[in-house]
Structures are given as structure tokens and as C-alpha cells.
Amino acid sequence: MKDTLFTRLLNYYHISEDDYLEKTRDVSISNFALGHEFKRMDEAVNLVKEAIKNKDKIFIYGDYDADGIMSTSIITKSLLILGVIPLYYIPNRYNDGYGINLTKSEEIVNKGVKLVITVDNGISANEPIDYLKEHGVKVLVLDHHSVPEVVPNADVIIHPSYSEFGEVATSAGFVSFMFAWALLGRFDKYLATLASISLISDMMPLLEYNRDFLRLIFANYRDGEFYNIDFLKEDMKFDEVAIGMKIAPKINALGRLLDDETINYVVRFFVTQDHEKIDKIGNWIVNINEKRKQASKDSDNLAVDIKEDEPAILVVKDIKEGLLGLIANNLCSTYHKPTIVFTEERDGECLKGSARAPEGFNVVDAFNYCSDLMVTSGGHALAGGCSIKKIDFEKFKNKFYEFAKKTPIVVEEKEDIPLGLTEINEENYQLIHSFSPFGESWKAPIFRLKHIKTDSLLFSKSGEHILTYVGYGVKLTGFNISKDSLSDYQFVDLIGSIKKSIYRGQESIEFNIKKAISADK
User: Fold this and answer.
1) pTM above 0.85?
2) 37: which DSSP letter?
């Protein structure tokens, strides 16, 4: 087969040309999830329709991350479309914790609620749901988290694996949208757009129905149609990049920083069409996100004693719980070591921690190794959360170090695709883009420009960044790759990605350099 960029991309993704044609086929409302159905969906719809018919109070209990907020907004908006004004609640991370709890169940019963819909939580809420059921409240669970051995006594549970929808994990927002579609009896484009945000924000694998759903939404998004989404994405094209860079961080900032019930304003932002209200709440969201950015910058200046000979970083800091993950991620990225950042819980007896790890290390395995010293734990290979007794910190740290020493990080060499300078053009950009959307389990391709003469590269006035034009509308950019850092090399390989940038109305194809490696023989 002739060596073309197309064949190199097929090899990179380990797919055939037939696979490519299948992945890039036209997607429609009728075929994005062809052959997949949620078991008991009709029962779930009838449960809600009966409550509407009886004019029962309906309560939606959500979660404080972007997926939970999208899910709550989807179900709330669906009921509003049907002429029903539901009660809803986004819990506060600091006061309520994750998921519906017994205290909230008692409050819900006292409000005279007859139907509770949990979204992005509930699959493990056995005791709170038992309480609701004992007091005559019906319960619908819309969730996607791990299914426990004993599921709660809800009237109906709609869940990707429990309800036998499919093998690929998906978001609570997607589950909520599919329920809303069945409830309304029609595909609502706006609700689908909210669900697409949840797939990216919750880092769901971009395979099968997740991938096709995003392709459908991205292809049909029109600027000016949804004022609130346009507000959050700013001037970016609506796609996985805009969600990851502009939209999801703004929404997640609320759950990280707010320690009161004002987080519930965000649902109003997503269910109203009033531009004045959207502007007011939107500016509030932006302001909270700016505080999150500043807090993240301040965290870079936290005094952390890093010892080169220690296999991991475990520290206790007096910071908001919602910032733990950001700081852990920064430290992990900087020092390339498994990291857990703890803060003291309000009871003064426990420490709450957020863990991040470089590729090649497994956080869940580490937690299992230290399970005798843990109060709670959960997560996946590269990230997790936990709590431990304050008095056990040193014991836990030593045992975590012990595991880290026994399991050295094994980093798999990442593939890249060889590329010629003349191959950086509009046609090939479109070819690469046809493989999108990119994200979890389907990463954007990494390219290598081989044997580039360093004296052919142009730099910014400060000499700190590569800014080289190689042809009409094509440029190489490498931020924080200075002229001095390459001065000892005659030739380099440039590793990076291809994107389209717009500056002052002018489009250009850009090779974004991630790193430069010596190619001198």
C-alpha cells in the first residue's frame, strides 16, 4: 500500500480502511445508537408521566460536577417543556458531599415530594432511597457509576450497564438525555447539546455511540442558536476542544469553590432562554472561574518539600477540598511522580485526599495495597479520591511509598506519525479532522517532523518561543521552547499536533510543537 498520510493514520489507530469508513459514516438521529436500548425505559417514562398526571411534586437530586449539572439541567428542562415546574438540588461538595444522603431524604419527605429522580448519583444510595420508599416516595435513578452488589430499592434504575444499553461506559448526561428523549417523545437538540458537554467533561471513552453522538451534535451546532452555550464557549467552534478548554472548566469551578447553595443558580443558566438572566448568571460563573484560575496559580507557589529519592509525593495542605485535584495534577505533571494532596476534613479526625499519577502507575492498585489504613477510596488508574484517619498519615505515607517502590512506573513509548513539512496543509488538516472527535480512548494523533535544521527556525523577540512561517497560511509554533535550549543542536525532531487557528479573522494551519528532540547523528 502506498505510504500516504491516510495510511499512516490508519496504522496509528490500528484500524482498516473499512473501519475508517464505518467511523466516518453519516450519523443521524436514527442511527447514532442503532441497536442500543435501555431496559425498562418505558417503565421509567410511565413513572414520571403518572406523577405529572397526579400533579405530584417532583424532586431532581443532582451532583456538583459538570456531568451532574448537565444531567440536572436536562431533566429539569424536559419537565419544564411538559409544563411541570420541578424542585431540584445541586448538592454542595463541602456540606452535603457526593450523592443523596439520609438528611436530604428526610428534607425531601418533609416537602411533600412524591417522586425523586437522582441523576449522576443514586446507584449506591441504598439507605437514603430506603427511607424515601418507606415514606411513600417513588424513586427513579439515572446514573452511570459502578453498580454495587446490592442495588437500591428504587422503582426504576436506568444505567448503561445495569440496563444493558451497551459495553462502552457513558455519562450520566447521556443517560439523562436518552430518558428525556423517551419522555418527550422527540429528539431535543438543545438537551442533546448539554449531554454532549457531559461526555467530554466526564472523560467518557469516545467510542461507538458516544463518538457518534458527539459527531452528530458537533456537525449540527449553529452559532447563535443557543445563547448560553455560545456564552461559555466564547469565540471557539463548538467541539471537544471548546468543551474541554472553555465550557467544562467554568462549570466545574462552581463545585470546586462554592461552599453554599448558590451553585444551584447554574441550573437556571441552562434552563432559561432569557438573555438578560443568562448574562447575569454567566458573568457570575466567569467570575468564579477566574477565582479558580487564581487559586490554581497560587497553588503553584505552595511550599512542598519534594525529595528526589522518594517515589511519590504525599502532602497535607490547608486548602479547599475542591482544589486538591488541581494541585495534585500540577505536582504530578511537574515531578512525574504519583501524588496525593490531602486537606483536613471538618471533623478534624480525617484527611481528604485527591490522587493523580503518571501513566504507568495504577492509583486503584495503590489504594488496594493500603486499604487497611483507608476510610474511603475510589477512582481509576490515573486519578482517585480517598480519606484516611489523620493519625494514620505517616503510616499511610510509608505504605504508599512501599507500594510505589515495588511497582516502578513503566511508561509505554507513545507512537507518533512521521510528517513532512509540505504535508502541513488544509487538505491534510481536513483528513486528520475526519478522525475526530478526539478524547478518552481515541487520542488526537501526534506527529513528528524529522531532521529540521535549528538555524531555519524563527523565534519570538524574546527568543522564548518558536514562531516560524513555512508557507502561506502555515506556521510552526512552540511555546516555551527557547532559542537557547536548542543552541547546542544542528538538527531536531519536532513532536506535536496539527490544528487550525484564527487570529484577527485570518485562518492558518498550525503545527503546535510539544517538544523538540535532538536529531544530530
Assistant:
1) yes
2) -
Q: How many residues does the chain have?
A: 521
DSSP state of 146: P
Domains of the chain in start order, with CATH, are 36-207+220-287 (3.90.1640.30), 313-406 (3.10.310.30), 417-518 (2.40.50.460)
| pLDDT beneath 50, residues of the chain | none
DSSP 147: P
Contact predicate 443/38, CB 8 Å: no
Q: Which stretch of DSSP H or E encloses residue 467?
A: strand 466-471
All cell numbers assigned to 369: 495495597
Distances 354 to 324, 343, 500 between C-alpha atoms, Å: 6, 9, 35
Residue 288's pLDDT is 96
Residue with cell 452535603: 96
d(CA 90, CA 372): 33
> By C-alpha distance, which of 126, 139, 132, 137 is closest to 99?
126
> In sequence order, what are the residues at sequence separation of 6 or more whose Cβ sits closer than 8 angstroms to the Cβ of residue 202?
65, 66, 67, 171, 172, 173
Q: Closest by alpha carbon to 63, among 117, 128, 129, 140? A: 117
The Cβ of residue 410 has, within 10 Å, a number of other Cβ atoms equal to 8
pLDDT score, position 300: 65
Find out whether 67 and 55 touch, Cβ atoms under 8 Å: no
